[in-house]
Design brief:
Blueprint (H helix, E strand, L loop, with lengths): L1 E3 L2 E3 L3 E3 L8 H9 L10 E8 L3 E9 L10 H5 L2 E3 L2 E5 L5 E4 L1 H14 L7 H14 L10 E11 L12 E12 L11 E6 L16 H5 L2 H9 L4 E5 L7 E4 L2 E7 L8 E5 L9 H12 L3 E5 L3 H9 L3 E8 L3 E10 L2 E4 L7 H14 L10 E3 L2
Parallel strand pairs: 3-5, 11-12, 11-18, 15-16
Antiparallel strand pairs: 1-2, 4-5, 4-10, 6-9, 7-8, 7-9, 8-20, 9-10, 12-13, 13-14, 14-15, 14-17, 17-18, 18-19
């Protein structure tokens, strides 16, 4: 569907089923123990845009390599954005998406920041639903598993001129059966994180709020440094002072704060200042926390405050959140100036309660009062 003003025009996708889908036995073997981002389904969505025709040539077709000229803009100037979302098997065997309109809106915000064409929300959701319906037998039903969906858009104009954005683009959606990141059969382990004081993820006015591939490429070196320090993930600080806590890897951070005088805990997360990604999971957890009686705050926290409040027992739990991992508890912090432990170093009760509440909605185990789930097939 392509929105023009208030009218909505249906965009037809040509369906070209694969003539050689993966044999059932091989597919079932993958679904029995899916590994994140390693195996991909039989089909993909493709849709093209240029400045003369707009969006056109929508297809569901066999998963295959993409052919591009060596001078395509994406290779030289990094015009690329993507999304991450999941389809979940429900108790009755149906399949549902979690808040796909939010992913569509964020995709467009990312595209706008990188001077790329926006894709109407209706078309984005239509494309994702078409692929999920086609690949419904690829949606696993094991605990913590899902069909991970990766919509992305790349610049395809063959040119080496960098003064103007590309005049043509390719939008794709691919799918991969997956289990949750940072998760085991007994639940999510508490991670150890490294404070990056040498590198920065994003600066004001940059692309930190966009889900752009270049942001992740620039993070690899700091993540390697974290691993060399015996840590699981890197925590990003602000670019100007390297003082204020921003994100963990590609995920939003949340802090469970206990008031000094007693009373309900508060869930605090760094405010969206333009350098942080506006996570769909982040937004969902803030809403769930409020419904569970927790205070909610979007503010800022310095490294010294984080350490001091943990030592005083005012910050008792910390976790990162995002589509891939859902919730990843943080138990230990390390940095050039030393380290500390959060609570007793294990996942805390508020963290686990929020995780259970969110997963309960996504997997259809609890009532979806907020109407976040969109049944597809």
């Amino acid at each position: 569907m392509v929105a023009r003003g208030r009218a909505v025009v249906i965009l037809e996708f040509e369906v070209r089923p694969s003539r050689s889908p993966m044999p059932d036995v091989e597919r079932r073997s993958i679904l029995a123990a899916p590994v994140f981002g390693q195996a991909f389904t039989d089909h993909m969505i493709t849709l093209r845009w240029d400045d003369e025709r707009g969006w056109h040539d929508g297809r569901l077709e066999e998963y295959q390599n993409i052919s591009l000229p060596p001078t395509a803009s994406v290779f030289h100037y990094g015009q690329e954005v993507f999304e991450g979302m999941k389809a979940y098997r429900q108790p009755d065997g149906s399949v549902a998406l979690f808040r796909p309109e939010r992913n569509a809106a964020r995709f467009n915000a990312s595209a706008q920041r990188l001077a790329m064409p926006e894709l109407p929300v209706e078309t984005f959701v239509q494309a994702v639903e078409l692929l999920v319906r086609q690949e419904r037998h690829w949606v696993p039903d094991g605990a913590g598993t899902s069909l991970y969906l990766r919509p992305f858009m790349i610049a395809t104009q063959p040119t080496l001129g960098f003064t103007l954005p590309s005049r043509s683009y390719l939008f794709c959606v691919v799918a991969s059966p997956a289990s949750a990141y940072f998760s085991t059969r007994t639940g999510p382990p508490a991670l150890t994180v490294w404070l990056s004081e040498e590198y920065a993820r994003a600066a004001p006015g940059g692309t930190g709020a966009a889900k752009a591939g270049g942001n992740y490429a620039a993070a690899f070196l700091a993540q390697r440094q974290a691993v060399e320090q015996g840590c699981d993930q890197v925590v990003w600080l602000d670019a100007a002072e390297h003082t204020w806590v921003e994100e963990m890897g590609g995920m939003n951070l949340c802090f469970v704060q206990q008031p000094a005088g007693g009373g309900p805990a508060t869930l605090m997360t760094p405010a969206l200042t333009g350098t942080l990604l506006p996570g769909v999971t982040r937004d969902s957890l803030l809403q769930l926390a409020a419904r569970l009686g927790l205070g909610c705050e979007e503010g800022r926290l310095s490294v010294s405050q984080w350490r001091k409040h943990c030592e005083e027992g005012l910050i008792t739990e910390v976790f990162a959140c995002g589509t891939a991992a859902v919730i990843a508890p943080v138990g230990h912090v390390r940095g050039a100036g030393g380290g500390w432990t959060i609570g007793d170093g294990s996942p805390g009760p508020v963290t686990l309660r929020l995780r259970d509440e969110l997963l309960g909605i996504q997997y259809g185990r609890t009532t979806d009062e907020l109407r976040w789930m969109r049944k597809v097939c």
